[in-house]
Design a protein that fits this description.
Order of helices and strands: EEEEHHEHHHHHEHHEEEEEH
Distance between the termini: 44 Å
Largest sheet: 7 strands, mixed
Helix content: 25-40%
Mean pLDDT: 85
Radius of gyration: 23 Å
Strand content: 5-15%
CATH superfamily of the largest domain: Alkaline Phosphatase, subunit A
Amino acid sequence: MNTALNRRTVLRGMMGGTAISVGLPLLDCFLNTHGDALADGGALPKCFVSWFQGLAFVPGYWEPKTTGANYEPGPHLRALAPLKSKMNVYSGMKLYLDQTPANAHGSGPAGVLQGSVSHPNLPSMDQMVADAIGTRTRFRSLEVSCDNGTDAFSRRSATAVNAAEPDPAKLYMRIFGPDFRDPNAADFTPDPAVMVRKSVLSSIKDKRETLIQNLGSLDKARVDEYFTSLRALEHRLEIELEKPRPLEACVMHAKVEGITLGKVMEDARATHNLHASLLAHAMACGQTQVAHLRLGSSACDLRRRGSQQVYHMYTHEEAVDPVLGYQKEVAWFSNQSAEALFDFVKAFEGIREGTGTLLDRALIMYSTDCGNARTHTLENIPMLTIGSGGGAIKTGLHVNATSDPITRVGLTLMQAMGVPIGQWGMVSNTTSKTITEILA
């Protein structure tokens, strides 16, 4: 007997006297014949993740020896070798300081993610992507950290910084707690509490212009930033009052609890893997399309279990092993970073969507703060991308662009994600030159 299914089909039952409904995974019958779009012609939404780890990889041991296709990742990217066909490696590029005093571990993230070390009021590129693709989701973006810190490199301006959530249990409640609405549920009733909050915020709209007219320039800027955050909240409330678009790959994540947070690398990786799974499920359920994850800070203070020496101090104080040719403990931390990034990607590959996976419509960007952690150099800063962003970029390539501004990577990826931008960066880091060989 054939049973008709559609994209809104759910399984209903009772649990403890409460009615429940569970959405089905994204079955082939919900997609077109190629499996790369919904059957009704709607495109599967692109997803973007900015993944950061401070102190980079060991110079000379991550760069492929050949450019173009069929490259081999360097020894300290060995953990990522199974992803080679889906990964691009970018080497040789640098960040220009333009006579701005170098901030040992702050200049790199500012230049790589904001396009400038001298103009701190610029938004980070993940937020520019969120402006393009994150306007119709419950969360414009989600930011997390894995070392029990709340600092993030995601920001709207110099003062409007997106705090990172370090606790996966709290992230779970934020995404899948009482406010979560199953996009595949047949019935949808707007939450009266959300309606009240929306009406309260809407009631002050007419007062804004009158207030601004009576303020000085500095106060106007502060109030404008405040109202910008209010508009973002209003937008989120508007989204919560609309019936979500069905996404049949959505399966509610298992509850997260009992996590050990801290500065031990092994604990940070366990936290990281939970964050990775939660973010992947959030994107599969249409809760967000943009995320920023920080494994460790720029001056990374993660340590190996049983040791009091932190990663950052090893980069400066550990001697180079005469046989290996590099700092052995530093290499251990570098390898941990590569393995964690691999785990992150596998969380996206683990969610099936038709004949593909969530990774097929995702673009994951690795960035760091320097090219050589021991000397804080801003040359040959490692950059990686994994995934094609729904076919927006070609993969499986090593691109070397020695001495070009590293902003070329950000500009290219933002264009691939649909950001209407033809030039990015400031002063010597300004570029309008995309990496054309990766654009699809």
